[in-house]
Amino acid sequence: MQVIDLAETTLRDMNAALQAQNGSTNQTAWQILNPRGAHALAVGLDAPLDVTVAGPTGYYCAGMNARATVRVAGSVGPGVAENMMSGTVIVEGDASQYAGATGHGGLLVIHGNAASRCGISMKGIDIVVHGNIGHMSAFMAQKGHLVVCGDAGEALGDSIYEAQLFVRGSVKSLGADCIEKEMRPEHLTALAKLLESAGSDADPAGFRRYGSARRLYHFDIDNAY
Amino acid sequence: MTDKPRTVPVQSATFTPAVNAEIRRAAATGIYDIRGGGAKRRLPHFDDLLFLGASMSRYPLEGYRERCGTDVTLGTRYAKSPVRLDIPITIAGMSFGALSGQAKEALGRGATLAGTSTTTGDGGMTPEERGHSRLLVYQYLPSRYGMNPADLRRADAIEIVVGQGAKPGGGGMLLGQKISDRVAAMRDLPAGIDQRSACRHPDWTGPDDLEIKILELREITGWQVPIYVKIGGARPYFDTTLAVKAGADVVVLDGMQGGTAATQDVFIEHVGMPTLACIPEAVRALQDLGMHRSVQLIVSGGIRNGADVAKALALGADCASIGTAALIALGDNDPRHEAEYKALGTTAGAYDDWHEGRDPAGITTQDPELAARLDPVEGGRRLNNYLKVMTLEAQTIARACGKNHVLNLEPEDLCAITMEAAAMAKVPLAGTDWYPGKPS
Ligand SMILES: Cc1cc2nc3c(=O)[nH]c(=O)nc-3n(C[C@H](O)[C@H](O)[C@H](O)COP(=O)(O)O)c2cc1C
């Protein structure tokens, strides 16, 4: 286990040490001590690393992650795992705004709640939130899955494209062009797999599915506001 | 019956034939006009400025013999590897999607031959473009279409797009006709549907957030490459100040004449400030921060020739950038396609329905047959020629003003021929030592 203490090491040296493993490495286990809310922690990784951050982080933790598993033993600031390509990011606490924004792939698990705009412009990432999510989540969501074991705030899935949303609790309101959709067996299967990989024992049958009505797909004056 | 004298028919200067036609079109369709290109209205512009040249009180340089440098270095503030250009003109960001793959390749080839950079656009980086561009600037846009860390690390600079001059405050729209399977796959969306590009970034809101976003991008790219921030001409003094505060290495400022691939006509013509009015305000912001020449300023929006470049530099910019003019150099709106423009209901020079993807010149299209009309090698050669001419023109002017580098041009070399231009550019009205608003 490699240990980097941010009380003694600069952010630059810490990220450089992790990024130096990009490609292939046999030093896969890393621990980051004293993050103390630092921004841009463990960003741009591209190796099968196992990184544990021992405490809360600021903005963009694990931004653009590829292949690595990053676990945060605490809460994260805005934009955790933004534009993630692959790998896994696990947040043991809560996440601020824009969690998983524009993510292309991989799995983001948030054990607490996520604030507004969770999964905004997501492009293939899977996001599982054990708690609730805030307003405008999955705005313009293109691809991937957003699973919410708690409640969703206002305007869920506004202007959504092909992402699939699953919510167990209440949805305050749906955004433009987002509708409830039938939960078919293939959706239950996919949902069960996502819940399992996120360590949730929630019953897939208790969820509702939401997605695009596809009425905004072609520019039409009746769709303008 | 005697002919009584009648008044001659008088067309209204307010309700012109074009205005009336637009009212009828709106009444018939119920939809606003979307088009490509920049503002078509007459605006105070570089044509309203003149260089004074040299005579008794200034000493010129020999036109063909004496050295007049044209190289520019961008990103000297923080980047370990700044971008070094041979000429003070770059190719602006234009998306693959709006433009064909061949057009992107031609831009890369031409820019590389000329010793300058080209820029990706909304929709991501294509291998053709990376492969044929020695210096490639990677745009980081609100849509994040095609955005990935591998391409980010392949870039020679990163340009965070906050806005465009054609539509400051507006997002984008690529209509379904141009969404081929390849374009769709790059953007993670179904083929054939209209694609909206958001007007705001998804994971930061104000300049304080942008500072952290820039930190993240630098951490991912090891502080190697410059980070540009592109703004549309709205409030250039404050926007430049905030971009610098957020940590930009370079500010790219696009005035309202700047082209777009597809935007509402009302937005293009009625929102934003003319390029001429933007430059002195941005330069003043840099000077007030003590950052003029440390944070470089790239200016675009209606740059057409070496005189425009020289004037932008004289007003304090470090570099100019071109979009529309580069497309014209490749063959856009060429009268040799007149029959086809006619068939599309337009004429050479006025063709702006770039969003429809039926460009006879094969540039603003994804139709394989039309796109094949543009030979990227020949296009690159033409663009290089054009960039060479612009550079020679700028040098000609700089030498005439006694400058051994184009970056030594200064406002003192200029006068204005209209009151508006004098006020906007803050250079004296010709024949006076005065401009409107000059501090006494
Ligand atoms: C066809 C076309 C596509 C464009 N696409 C983009 C884009 O993807 N991103 C961007 O920041 N600007 C885009 N622009 C704007 C240019 O980057 C640039 O700001 C503008 O063209 C400069 O003005 P000019 O056309 O008068 O030279 C586009 C412009 C054109 C003409």
Supply the key terms:
heterodimer, A: 225 residues, mainly beta, Pectate Lyase C-like, 11-stranded mixed β-sheet, 10% helix, 23% strand, B: 440 residues, alpha/beta, TIM Barrel, 8-stranded parallel β-sheet, two-stranded antiparallel sheet, globular, binds flavin mononucleotide
How does the major sheet of chain B shape up?
8 strands, parallel
The percent range for helix content of chain A is: under 10%
User: Which regions of chain B contain 5 or more consecutive residues with pLDDT less than 50?
Assistant: none
Instruction: Decide which structural class fits the backbone of chain A.
Output: mainly beta
Strand content of chain B: 5-15%
Description of the molecule:
The complex is a heterodimer of chains A (about 220) and B (about 450). Chain A has about 220 residues and is mainly beta. Chain A has one domain: Glutamate synthase, alpha subunit, C-terminal domain (Pectate Lyase C-like). Chain A has helices spanning about 10-20, 185-195; strands at about 1-5, 30-35, 50-55, 70, 90, 105-110, 125-130, 145-150, 165, 180, 210. Chain A has an eleven-stranded mixed beta sheet, with helices on one face. The radius of gyration of chain A is 18 Å and the shape is elongated. With about 450 residues, chain B is an alpha/beta fold. The radius of gyration of chain B is 22 Å and the shape is globular. Chain B starts with 16 loop residues before the first helix and ends in a 15-residue tail after the last helix. Chain B has helices at about 15-30, 100-115, 125-130, 150-155, 180-185, 205-220, 235-245, 265-270, 275-290, 305-315, 325-330, 340-345, 370, 375-400, 420-425, and strands at about 35, 50, 70-75, 85, 90, 115-120, 135-140, 155-160, 170-175, 195, 225-230, 250-255, 265, 295-300, 320, 415. Chain B has 15 helices and 16 strands. In chain B, strands 5-15-14-12-11-8-7-6 form an eight-stranded parallel beta sheet. In chain B, strands 1-13 form a two-stranded antiparallel ribbon. Chain B has a single domain, classed as TIM Barrel, CATH 3.20.20. The mean pLDDT of chain B is about 95. The interface of A and B includes residues 19, 78, 102, 143 and 161 of A. The structure holds flavin mononucleotide (FMN).
